[in-house]
């Protein structure tokens, strides 16, 4: 049965993804210009889609029946991700071949990084999580309480580290800097934790969550301007 509440959030995330790509050109304007400033501020409010999708994957993962056969469970999840990915990869590859823009030697790397369909890195991330999911979904509540902060430290250390030290290798560039599963692991683990405790949350918590969200958004905007000129999407 569909859950209208979470379907609305998925719809908002899809709109945010479109907005990211539609408004990305604003960041190409000179620093300090109205367009550039608008792009920086807007980006901080629409950066959430991939994190939300990963979160929802963890939350809904616990609503199904856990497979007793780990290998079969992994194969099922990988198949659901790979089939549409490969179908669309074939479509994009054919289009590039017809227009003479395909280098066959680059195809294996394009498939492995998701760039065969432009921004398919998300599929590669979810494939990694799918392989780990049978173990992650068996974490106890206490294990999740420990794993979430540890995963946040790992994610933040990598994300900020490669930028603050001025690392100029391939892992500092998109999509490589978005591919490692541990960057997104905090959201999946949070989804698992919420999937277990979510129904127990009281509606009285939402005003506090709203305030926390607004404060976080404000902090993101402030941080984004600290990094200018630099990665406006980092915060």
Task: Summarize the structure in short.
By secondary structure, the chain is an all-alpha fold.
Strand tally is 0
| SSE pattern, N- to C-terminal | HHHHHHHHH
Overall spatial form: globular
> What portion of the residues fall into strands of 2 or more residues?
under 5%
Low-confidence segments, ≥5 residues, pLDDT <50?
none
Give me the number of helical elements.
Answer: 9
Radius of gyration: 19 Å
Q: Tell me the major beta sheet.
A: none
> Share of helix among residues?
55-70%
Structural class: mainly alpha
Give the end-to-end Cα distance, rounded to a whole number of Å. 36 Å
On the 0 to 100 scale, the average pLDDT is 84
Detail the topology: elements first, then pairings.
Elements: H1 4-23, H2 34-45, H3 49-61, H4 70-98, H5 107-113, H6 121-136, H7 141-164, H8 181-197, H9 206-227
Helix pairs in contact: 1-3, 2-9, 3-8, 4-6, 6-8, 7-8
């Amino acid at each position: 049965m569909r859950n209208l509440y979470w379907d609305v959030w998925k719809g908002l995330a899809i709109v945010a993804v479109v907005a990211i790509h539609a408004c990305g050109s604003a960041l190409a304007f000179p620093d300090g210009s109205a367009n550039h400033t608008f792009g920086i501020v807007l980006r901080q409010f629409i950066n959430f889609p991939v994190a939300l999708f990963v979160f929802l994957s963890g939350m809904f993962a616990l609503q199904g029946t856990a497979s007793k056969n780990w290998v079969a469970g992994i194969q099922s999840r990988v198949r659901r991700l790979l089939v549409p990915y490969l179908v669309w990869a074939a479509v994009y590859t054919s289009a590039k071949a017809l227009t003479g823009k395909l280098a066959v030697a680059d195809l294996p790397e394009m498939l492995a990084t998701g760039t065969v369909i432009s921004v398919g890195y998300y599929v590669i991330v979810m494939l990694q999580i799918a392989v780990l999911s049978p173990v992650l979904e068996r974490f106890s509540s206490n294990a999740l309480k420990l794993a979430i902060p540890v995963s946040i430290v790992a994610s933040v250390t990598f994300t900020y580290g490669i930028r603050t030290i001025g690392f100029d290798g391939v892992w500092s560039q998109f999509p490589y800097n978005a591919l490692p599963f541990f960057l997104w692991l905090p959201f999946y683990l949070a989804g698992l934790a919420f999937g277990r405790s979510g129904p127990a949350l009281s509606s009285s918590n939402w005003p506090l969550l709203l305030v926390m969200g607004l404060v976080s958004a404000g902090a993101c905007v402030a941080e984004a301007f600290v990094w200018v000129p630099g990665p406006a999407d980092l915060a």
